Amino acid sequence: MTLPRNAWRRWRVRIGYPVGIVYWLLAVPTIRAIAIGSAIAALGLLIRGIASGYLQKDESLTTTGIYAYTRNPLYLGSAFLAAGFLVAGRSWIAAIIVAAYFIVFYYAAIRNEEAYLREEFGAAAFDAYVARAPIFFPWFSRAAQSGDAGPGSSFSWPQYRRNREYQALLGAIAGIGLLFLRMWLRLRFGR
Questions:
Q1: Could you tell me if residue 104 is inside a domain?
Q2: Spatial distance between the Cα atoms of 133 and 72, rounded to a whole number of angstroms
Q3: How far is residue 163 from each of residues 50, 66, 168, 171, 178, measured CA to CA in Å?
Q4: Considering only CA atoms, which of 73, 82, 80 is closest in space to residue 23?
Q5: Residue 12 forms part of a structural domain
Q6: What is the pTM of this model?
Q7: Is 175 exposed, middle or buried (0-12, 13-18, 19+ CB in 10 A)?
Q8: Burial class for 115, CB neighbours closer than 10 Å (0-12, 13-18, 19+)
Q9: Residue 40 CA to chain centroid, in angstroms?
Q10: In angstroms, what CA-CA distances link 123 with 58, 89, 148?
Q11: Which among 88, 51, 77 has a CA at the least distance from the CA of 176?
């Protein structure tokens, strides 16, 4: 049984805020950790940005660009983004909590969205796509061909903006700023 798509989004956000607060309180960042973590997070933002420039939500089954290599590039990018913050935070306990949150909610969200896509765009089209592209980790060694040259077959900056992917960039910048604040508080007050 799957929950409605918006229910997963709503609960992912509602539980994500307390997880983020716990992560921040447990974080023990250093300049070096923040720099390395930021580089990893930047890779995640790049993956998400590329994916967002192809994605036409609720309009068509996106199978081109990065979607030809993985069915969930936005979540793959989010995994790199989260990994970057875990490296920057330097806390095993926080890493376990965030990883558990990510695995539970993103696995469920992926399965829920797959059921939606199968129903919305047809089982035949979706199953053909499933046969060509893996669920999460991309296949770079094989030539993924979608056979779709329709809308979304090339990267689009207007589509990137319509999908509001810039919000992930702004959120990451704010998160890095909060890590610098956490580091300053630890150095200043020992907390």
A1: yes
A2: 9
A3: 11, 16, 11, 15, 25
A4: 82
A5: no
A6: 0.89
A7: buried
A8: middle
A9: 13
A10: 15, 42, 16
A11: 88
Q: Does 5 reside within a domain?
A: no
Q: Is residue 161 part of a domain?
A: yes
Name the token pair of 21: 């607060």
pLDDT tens by residue, the chain, 191 residues: 455 656 666 788 889 999 999 999 999 999 999 999 999 999 999 999 999 999 998 899 999 999 999 999 999 999 999 999 999 999 999 999 999 999 999 998 899 999 999 999 999 999 999 999 999 999 775 545 544 555 557 899 999 999 999 999 999 999 999 999 999 999 999 86
Structure tokens belonging to residue 4: 């409605």
CATH number at residue 81: 1.20.120
> How far apart are the two ends of the chain, measured CA to CA in Å?
44
Give me the helices (H) in the chain, please.
5-26, 31-52, 73-89, 92-121, 123-132, 157-162, 166-189
Number of domains in the chain: 1
Give the number of other Cβ atoms within 10 Å of residue 61's Cβ: 20
The answer to whether residues 71 and 133 touch, using CB atoms and an 8 Å cutoff, is yes
Per the structure, the complete domain to which residue 75 belongs is given by 17-189
